[in-house]
Each structure stands twice: as C-alpha cells, then as structure tokens.
Amino acid sequence: VAPYTACHGGDLMMRIPRRYLPVALAPDSVVALNADAAHHVARVLRMEVGAAVCLFNGEGGEYQAVLHSINKSHVYAQILSYSPRDAESPLHVTLAQGIPRGERMDYTLQKAVELGVARIAPLFSERCEVRLQGERLDKRIGHWQGIVISACEQCGRTRIPPLATPMTLQHWLSTSSFSGNGLHLVLDPRVPHRDVQMLREGRFRHPASGDTCASMHGAGCREQPPHSLAHCTKPADNNITLLIGPEGGLSDTEITAAEDVGFTRIRVGPRILRAETAGIAVLAALQSMWGDLR
Q1: CB count, 10 Å around CB of 38?
Q2: pTM of structure
Q3: d(CA 265, CA 269)
Q4: What is the DSSP string of 81-131?
Q5: How far apart are CA 35 and CA 96, in angstroms?
Q6: Following DSSP, what letter does each residue of 231-275 receive, concatenated?
Q7: Cβ pair 227, 267 in contact under 8 A
Q8: What pLDDT digit, counting tens, does each position of 39-81 carry?
C-alpha cells in the first residue's frame, strides 16, 4: 500500500504522500529528503515542484510541506506548517513475538503497527525455526525496521514504535521488568480441558448471586472462564505485555518461566490461531475493549 494519508491542515484534508524523515523539522525551513523518500516522490510518483507532501520525524505531530526543488541527486521540501495530530493508542502494548518463518513476521509487524502497538520485541524461543546471527541478523533487523516505518507512513502514526534487538525468550524474561500495575499475558491454546468443558456446560458462577450459569439457564450470566481475555481487568497504568510463540507455540517450560515473572495464561476463543495471527487478534481485541477502536 502506498504511504498516502489524509494530512491535516486546518479544516483542509488532502490525500497526499506521507513520508518519515528523521531530522529536525520546523515551519519555514527547507529540508532534503532522504534517498528513499526522494526516489519515491521523484521517480515513482513523478511529482513536480510545488506538489504537496506530508512529513513526520517520529517525535509527534506532522508537517505540511511542498516540494521546493528536484535535481538528479536531491529532492528538497519546504515546510509550511505543523499539525500536532496524535494517532497513538491510550494503551501501551508491548508485543513480544516469537519469530515466525518467512514473511509472516513482516505481516505481524505491519498489522501490529496499524493496530497501535507501542513496542515490539522479536524473540528466539525453543521452537523458533528462524536462526539468524551476524550480518544476516543485522540485515533482517533493517528490513523489519523498514516494515515498521512504512506501516507508520501508511496508517497515519506520528511516532515510530521501538523495535527491540532480537534476543532469546529466556534472556528477555530475565532482563525485562514486569512489576507494577501492568497486565502481562501469554497465549496458551492448551487451556485445561476442564475449563473448556465447564464453559460449554455453563458451570461458571454468576459473580453477584453465586448461582451457576446452568442453574440460571443462562439468564444474565456473563461470568467469563479463567484463561479468557474477557476475564482480565484493565491495568491501571494501561501497560500491557503480550507474549506470543512462533509456529508450534511456546513450550511448557517457557510458559512456566513467563508465569514465574508475573504472566497470566490466556486462550483466545475455541480455535488455535497461527503465529502471525494470534498477536494481531489479541491486539484488536484489547483496543476494542480498552483502547481506541471502541
């Protein structure tokens, strides 16, 4: 998808190209676009001097600008005005994702950014089939960073969510802080069969009367089972950590290690979600429950 968006300028909204430019920006200044942005507007879109562009530097807000000059080696833009527009979610969700194979990680990164993720931590876990190190790892990190930036350009975000350096799950659990009032969730589709059976039979108790759903014949009984996302309480500080495994999921040892530092196991629905789908589904649900998709 081309990085176009509705760039705001007073009451005027125009669908114009939107580019990330990590330099100091200010109205009435002229800035050189980086090589990627310059190639896109001048060679791909074939824009001319005077054409409108929208720029942001990741520090919040965005800038309305026009192309000032174009030559073989550089493209310059003149910044006209600043808009303090903010598209960040009130939820601060960290997605800790076991790295899946191929382009599945690209998909996860792109959609997580669109859904307002605050931070992304790629992880190597026991069942992770991706083995990267050295130059190959550096190249992949650069590629992933490009995916994140492109997604921000496309979806209208004005801040770039940090992408952590990939590390092992064990190292991440031992070096990260999960204290405070945050909510820390690990997806585990292997919910004990007893919970699933009780849900089907309606044997969870009503929170007020103490009657079971079965005895009430479903009358107003909406108590959720353990391990359900809806059973969770919104954290006071809006900080949420979401741990997702790669293909094959997380091992029992890894889930236990996560629980030992404060994570709660949850299951999302009756179906098993793919590695690249699970985090996106939970992010969408969280934003719908407590965030800005309501």
Answers
A1: 20
A2: 0.83
A3: 13
A4: EEE------SSEEEEEEEPPSTTHHHHHHHHHHHTT-SEEEEEE-TT----
A5: 31
A6: GS---TT-EEEEEE--TT---HHHHHHHHHTT-EEEB-SSSPPPH
A7: yes
A8: 888 888 888 999 999 999 999 999 999 999 998 889 999 999 9
